[in-house]
Structures are given as C-alpha cells and as structure tokens.
Amino acid sequence: MENKKYSCAIFDLDGVLVDTAKYHYLAWKSLADELGFDFTIEQNEALKGVSRMKSLDLLLGFGGLSDRFSQEEKEKMADKKNRIYVEMIKKLKKEELFGGVTDLFVKLKEKNMKTALGSASKNAPLILERLDIAKYFDAVVDGTQVSKAKPDPEVFVRAAEILHIPCKECIVFEDSAAGLQAAKTAGMKAVGIGKKENLPMADLVIGSVDQYIPYL
Ligand code: B16
Ligand code: MG
Prior knowledge:
This protein has helices spanning 21-35, 41-44, 52-62, 71-89, 101-110, 124-131, 154-162, 177-186, and strands at 8-11, 114-118, 139-141, 170-174, 189-193, 204-206. It is globular and about 50 Å long. Strand 2 (114-118), helix 6 (124-131) and strand 3 (139-141) form a beta-alpha-beta unit. By secondary structure, the protein is an alpha/beta fold. It has 2 domains: 8-19 and 94-215, Rossmann fold; 21-89, Orthogonal Bundle (DNA polymerase, domain 1), CATH 1.10.150. Strands 3-2-1-4-5-6 form a 6-stranded parallel sheet. Magnesium ion (MG) is lined by residues 12, 14-16, 48-49, 175-176, 179.
C-alpha cells in the first residue's frame, strides 16, 4: 500500500461507473449484423474508451471492410449506431450505477479530494442525468469538450486544469487501454478497472472503484 497522497480523482464513465460498455457493444453489433459480419465481445475490448468514429473504423476493420465507405457513409453509420445506443441509455436505471461507487465518492469528500469526470463520450450528460450522479463531480469533461480522443491525454489534463490541480496529484480510474495510456502520458496515476491481462499499463488494477477505498 502506497503513502503518496493525491488531491483529485478523475473518473472515466463507461465501464468504470456504469456498464454502458455493454450497450455500446450491442449497438455496434447490430450495425455489424446489418453489414453481414460477426463482432465478438473480445473484439469489443479494442473499442473501449476510443471515440465514436475511431470505433467505427476499428469495427469495419474487424469486418474486413476498411476503406469501402465514404466519409459521408461512415458518418451515417455512426449516427445510426448512436441512435440505437441512445435509445438504450435513455432507459438506464439508477440501480445500474456500479455497487460501491457512491461509497467511494463519500470517502473522497471526507478526505477533501476533488472529483472530475473524464469521459470520451458525447452522451455523458444524458448518462449522468439518468444515474443522478452529476452532483458528485467538481468538474465534468466529456467528448463534446475535447478535440483529441484518448489515448491523447487532453480530456484528463483539461479536468486537472479546470480544478487547478497539478497532473501528478491526480488519480485516473479507467477501464480502457486507451484511457490508461492517456493517464500515463498526462503524468497521472493510472488505476485500471477490470482484468490485469487486459490492462498491463495500469499502475494498479482493481475489480471495481470501491476497492480503492483502503488506499485512500
Ligand atoms: P459516444 P468513456 C467512451 O466513453 C466509450 O468507452 C467508448 O466505447 C465510446 O466509443 C466513446 O466513449 C464515445 O462515446 O459514442 O457516446 O460519444 O469510457 O471514455 O467514458
Ligand atoms: Mg471507459
């Protein structure tokens, strides 16, 4: 157990606070079905944390359909996937917030730590509203506010800037390889949520965010 103290915890959203990753998967899978190829849950790992258009490029690559479509056609496909996804997350229930998330937020406040959201998703505001968790964040940075997608560190650096906290005093909680890479590049502590074999670049891997409470 380390002794270093941090001032700020930055949370990814999809896959860290709520399992929206499964809805992203189902929405991309329905597009793959329509295009006539299989898209597996293992392949979906590569899409986690990356932007919508980059995800589409990866998906088309898995289907052997790279370079087959114009930019306009790709934008239509991405819009279609997003409409399917939004229909799913409009029905998101508060109970889908991962267990222990609220406990961690309470502990962070007790320790006077700042909290921020650092998500690649343009749908983050809708998800925060559905889960009623916007109140827990001192700063929110999402996919509508950044120009460079993870693994670029922009989303996390922006959150630290808003809160006037040096990057080295921030801990990032992330479920994706791209996001952990972004955290490391920013000079932040990178805590992986998930399985060690999928997240080799993390400083620490835990199964869920509340497992970090003993480290505070
Ligand atoms: P959207 P996060 C990411 O959110 C997802 O992990 C990733 O699968 C998705 O492609 C990306 O947001 C963009 O999402 O299409 O809703 O704008 O994990 O950074 O919270
Ligand atoms: Mg994520």
